[in-house]
Amino acid sequence: MFWGKKTDHSASIEKIALSLIETGQETGVLPFLSLKEAAEYANDKSPLISPGFVQCHATIGTGFYNLEFKPHPEKGVYMSAYYYGEANDL
User: Is the pLDDT of residue 1 over 70?
Assistant: First the structure.
């Protein structure tokens, strides 16, 4: 049935990353995400995963981004987003 079904947070992660870039913020809190889920998101995106830290490169729309995730002390993770430029130009 439905137990054990994993939620794919990719769309939410990418929407929030774009929002952070557009508003000039580098870091935001994603209370719905765990570091393990961040590692699953990064799995096929040139990941760098170590205890307490996940980093990856993601193409979102036409842009190329670096996303970093660190644990939040209470709930969820901090996500930092950095825009590198148009993916086709890199």
Answer: no
